[in-house]
Design goal:
615 residues; mainly beta; Methylamine Dehydrogenase, Chain H; 6-stranded antiparallel β-sheet; 54 strands; 60% strand
Amino acid sequence: SHSKNMKLTHLSGSSAQQHCLKFGHLPTYFIKNVHKTTIIQNIQNPTDQIILRGHLDKITCMSQFANLLLTGERGRDSDVLLWDITSQKLIQRFSEHDNGLMSLGFSEDGLFWMSYGNDHQLHIVETISGDIVGRVTLQYNFTKVVFGGRVIDPRGFKLAQYNVVGILESGQLIRIVYTPKTGLFEQQPVTQAAKKQITDCCFLESDPNLLVCSCTSGDILIFDMFTASLLTQINLPGQISVLNCIAVMRLSQEQKIQSKEAKKKNIYQTYERIEKLDEQLIVGGVNIIAVLKGQGQKWDVIFKQQLNQNVISVDCDFSQRGIFESDKGDITMLVNQQLFPVQSQHTKRITDMKFIGDKILSYVSEDQSLRILDLVDFQMAMVVKAGTKQFPTCVCLNKIQLIVGFSDGLVKIFDSENGDILMEFQGSNDRINSVSADLNLVLLGDSQGCLKLWDIRLKKIVEQHKPHNAAVTQIELQKDLNGEPLLLSASEDRNLVATLKQIRLLDFQFNAAIKAFVQLEKLFYVLNGSAIDVVDLKEHKIVYKREFQQKMLSVCVFEGDKIVAGGSDGSIFILGKNLEVLEEKKMHSGAVLKVAAFGGVICSADENGELIVWD
């Protein structure tokens, strides 16, 4: 029987996808997606996470209302999942779309939700029953569809109809009116300012007929959806760049009632509506985040901050707080016109990771970053951008420095304390797949099967040879009894080789390409195909062997006497010295490409960019 000691303490990563960041069901939580996984995280305590899994492909859109959450995925057979966040249970799986979801949304009152996909189908579903109550194939190609509230006529009466609006690929708007009683839809183009390309929109809190939009021109447009016409265009003071996203500071139920009481009158016209407008907006765009406060047609920028990244998602809550995410995976809160960093995450798959101390993890990613993560508070201790078009492929520590190899053969050496670049050189003409180092020597293994040993004091190669006929997958720099460099290397050519001064001392050929290996005492644990072989290299014999139901891709030593291995189906195994399975967990949404361990902590990273920390 397997032990049950591994506990997931944190899942990190970011899809950095537009319009995919929300405040949670409680004020202290936010919601984000990492590929196929939805994470609901406590802002103040990163170890407090709710993890929702059920999608078979990458999540592309979501919407939240009270304790309900909708998530939709891409792919040929694309589902919408309706979750109860409080119970963490899946309420409904909706499988009416083909070729991926574009937009999801709840009506303002939560009675209905809608889904729109690449198949141009718009569905309206009754929340409580899960029944489809409206369905239409739209004649336009929308990039986003937004579900609003009940239509209000010029006398101030709520009609038995709902506002829906779609943004065309051209940036134009189409008004869609949905009538629940008949299940019918009316579509109508919206008159708007010339040459204004809309990027995002949302309905205002104080008047559900009014729609506010962000534009590529940096302008903000406000429309009356009842008349499908433009009311006003807000030209922001100062040079504002392309706006990507917009959200309205939400009103509590009490504030909404007060707002309605203040506006009560028998008859009011469209032009009076805009004069009564009193809202706060948060807009994000290329290198900017801003908050606007408006009364009528007079709008003031009450907060504006230039950023070195693009804001792709914004949301607001009932406490006048904003939260936004950048294309670099950084999540920030905006409270009382001040910015507070919440999280900095990698946006692409992790290519390598190593512990550099107790609960301090260094890792590199295809998003061109080197990161050091403190596993106590799950805050980034350091983020260093590679400063090259190529991405880092491997990392190691030589006690004081981080040595990073790149996909174009470049090597950069960083100070592990402050992230300063101490040295860089062209280590190889090909992709570097693995790096190992001591204080003076750096060993590189590349995609052509070559090993290159550099003396970083002399800045030159002191040894190079080609012991393999295919890509090197892993290397280890060791010392023999005389203190001479002993080079261990594994390759896709199925060979594990030990060389000393270019002389082949030991080798062993396996049944499949070697993905990784570790040494425990005098034995080597070698991952090849779906097997792990334990080899005594000096005796040239296999001591233990275990076959798995999947390919084994990553391995590390755990607590000095155990092995952690990651598989292609997302499983993590803890194995004893004789390869007996002590524990097995399947939490990853994709193949586990890297594992690392220190003390009682295990980290695992998969092909979808998920990084899981186990205790």
